[in-house]
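Worked Example 4.2. Consider the chain below.
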Amino acid sequence: MFSKNTIQKSKIVVCGAGVGGLTTGALLAHRGYQVHIFDQAIVPGGCASTFKRRGFTFDVGATQVAGLETGGIHHRIFSELEIDIPNATNCDPACAVFLPGETQPINVWRDPKKWQQERLSQFPGSEPFWQLMTKLFKASWKFQGRDPVLPPRNIWDMWQLAKAVRLDTLITVPFTLMTVADALRLYGLNDNLRLKTFLDLQLKLYSQVGTEETALLYAATALAVSQAPQGLYHLEGSMQVLSDRLVTALERDGGQLLMGHTVEQIYIDKGKATGVRVKNQKTGETWVETADHIVANVTVQNLVKLVKDENQTSHPIPGYKRRVNKLPSPSGAFVVYLGVDESAIPPNCPPHLQFFYNYDGPIGENNSLFVSVSHPGDGRAPTGKATITASSFTDTQIWRHCKDYQGLKQQYAEEAIARLSEYFYLKPETIVHQEAATPRTFVKFTARDEGVVGGVGQRLSTFGPFGFANRTPIQDLWLVGDSTHPGEGTAGVSYSALTVVRQIETESNIMSG
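Applying the procedure from the previous section yields the following structure tokens:
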């Protein structure tokens, strides 16, 4: 680590105050850098922020957290920043999954033995597949814990990757180019409709794509992180507490956060990032903020639209732009936020549920719903009340080009509530507050291109060693967030933030001699 005096002159501009941007900024400020974070939104946190209505607190997008356990990524970062880990409860089950026509869920238990018994009961004959996944997860988890840089882009990155490899890592090599569906076929399980549907539903949440496309090594971690000694957590208060504590650390260590300020352009000169054009949304004032390093906490689609070289008529990174443009269209989300009387919640309701209604329909467009439910005393609802947040994947183009936006929004909301009413007691007298969000809403409040959620799908062509690097083709321009390794979620974007911090420190050390 460098002393603050040694690197005081290095200035960092972070574009975006999502969890990835806040983590990067807080860590760099703590290590002595001059940090300025700009975000167009009103409150920090991005897709992990919250809003309040009539005494209810709603999590905008992300509703659960991984990495709070000792040694987990949030625990590591909060320990370095010398701030307290937020209070949280274990999600157990992590999710209760209801398949079409079934009244009893598949419970993803936190206890590994209990989860194994659930699998044996729900999916007879599938245990060899799950044992493979467990073996791959253990090797991959140890590998990730040694902080590899993926994908590597220079000698230092390669050295970090090489240092993370051990003999136990080699077990993953034969499976690097396999999808989950390949593994199911290997064990004669690809025609098991219930198992494949369950996996498709869970993987869509964590990797944006299903069994046919999700990289097996990514899935091994995504499907196992719910079990102890890891686990998923439900934060007390709201998801906002994560961002608020990062902001506290940032400002304590001299960093600046300017909300309501849009980064309109990232300037490039001779292949190097030099500054950004910022607009104060309240006053309309614009100015150029120069920097030694620029960290973009944006989607990769946003990034290629932001960069500009004033000395060139062509795009400064044409090959990178072409790769981005060839990506399959990511999903958006339709979300219903309900403030309800506690009588609407069934007894012993799990904190997270997933419903799939028709095998012939898609995962999304209200044929599947991921639901998060508040619990008494967790700070999200007044006494005697509760919140229900239900989201469904949706095609962003439906919302971009629809002629009757409000009519479509109302139709989706009514359909979602009708389906939720099959499990919850939702009547006019039990619904206190109701509103909905669409991809257009996410564009407005998060500025994510097309309102997409969840980042780049974890396909073979875009996961891990084949994904988008934190180190962009432009010198001193860095990318953090769910477009980079290891993917979406607050834990994933925090890993990407830590990688960028290490890379910037290494470059600063080289420059200072």
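Residues 66 and 87 are 13 Å apart (CA to CA). The radius of gyration is 22 Å. Compare this with Example 4.1 before moving on.
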